[in-house]
Amino acid sequence: MTTYNGCHYILEQLDSIYLQTRKPDEVIICDDRSSDDTIQIINSFIIEHNLSNWILQINEYNLGWQKNFYKAIGLAKGDIIFFSDQDDIWELNKIEKLSSLMVRYNLGCLVGGRTIINETGARNSKREEKRDFSNKLTKVKLNKSFYDIKTLGCCMCVSRKVADLYLSINYPEGGHDSQCGRIAVLFDSLWKLDTPVIKYRIHTSNSSGISGNFSFGSATLQKRLIDIEVQIEWAKRVTKLPICNENQKVFLTGILEALEARHKYLSQTKRLFISMLPYSSFYSGFSMFIGDWAYKHNINRKLGYIRWNIQKVLR
């Protein structure tokens, strides 16, 4: 778990981990120089419950959430590692359910579902998915749009092998959850369980983009270019891993070609949208494909607003 100024919600999260039906062997908490009561709340909780296997480390200086997670994962010793945000509430059987499946099927990464709550902990009906959970375990197949596979860190756990590969790439800028998900699917070991394992809290201070009213069009062209640059650098580093075989290298080479084409299109004014048609299969869907065109011509926010209102009416 990483923490930073999370005093409003941290106690509920600590409780939900402490009360798990399968107790964690260790809990690593890295605080990123909180200026509120977060550190005091965690220390008091550890002392009150005599939790000798719960470790709180306070960073010497502020690392930011990505590097803070990288540090915390590097401190973990377990064979199965769970990632935790500071403001959610875990279902009490999360560790038991996910770890048993990880062991039974020898999985590299397992991602569960979530229900959505608001600041007070009540179910957020406006943001809740209108469907029933199937409880099915399904394998995520490798495809050209694997950069857009959704792996929410607070819902996932990874094997020691995946965690060590993530650490060996040594690129925290890419985010721990997305990297671990990509590593797992690249090595044929990413699975999803359609069962809620956490209550995901939406509030104004969420680091995740899910807290916004709509995600499409809410960033900037510069941010999109930076994201692509991060993806390019990550793919280059993965191809250098000693366990990366020729088929995986060929796959990543194709991904790199598409990413570099996207970057050229978005950064060069005379580059035409038609030049991206050969790479359309590398996009997760039409909205992302047309999104590059919208960002380049600075109409992304207008299209995002239109899309959000259409979805609002359909609800």
Structure description:
This protein is α/β, with parallel strands linked by helices. It folds into two domains: 2-211, Alpha-Beta Complex (Spore Coat Polysaccharide Biosynthesis Protein SpsA, Chain A); 221-314, no CATH class. It is 42% helix and 14% strand. The chain has helices spanning 10-18, 38-48, 65-75, 94-105, 160-169, 176-186, 221-239, 246-267, 286-296, 300-314, and strands at 2-3, 27-31, 54-58, 80-82, 89-90, 109-117, 137-139, 156-159, 190-201. The strands form two sheets. Strands 4, 5, 6, 7, 8 and 9 form a six-stranded mixed β-sheet that branches. β2 (27-31), α2 (38-48) and β3 (54-58) form a beta-alpha-beta unit. α5 (160-169) packs across α6 (176-186), α7 runs antiparallel to α8 and α8 packs parallel to α9 (286-296). The two termini are 34 Å apart. Mean pLDDT is 89; it is low at 208-216.
Keywords:
315 residues; 3-stranded parallel β-sheet; 6-stranded mixed β-sheet; 2 domains; alpha/beta; 42% helix; Spore Coat Polysaccharide Biosynthesis Protein SpsA, Chain A
Would you spell out the secondary-structure blueprint of this structure?
Blueprint: E1 2-3, H1 10-18, E2 27-31, H2 38-48, E3 54-58, H3 65-75, E4 80-82, E5 89-90, H4 94-105, E6 109-117, E7 137-139, E8 156-159, H5 160-169, H6 176-186, E9 190-201, H7 221-239, H8 246-267, H9 286-296, H10 300-314
Parallel strand pairs: 1-2, 2-3, 6-9
Antiparallel strand pairs: 4-8, 5-9, 6-8, 7-9
Helix pairs in contact: 5-6, 7-8, 8-9
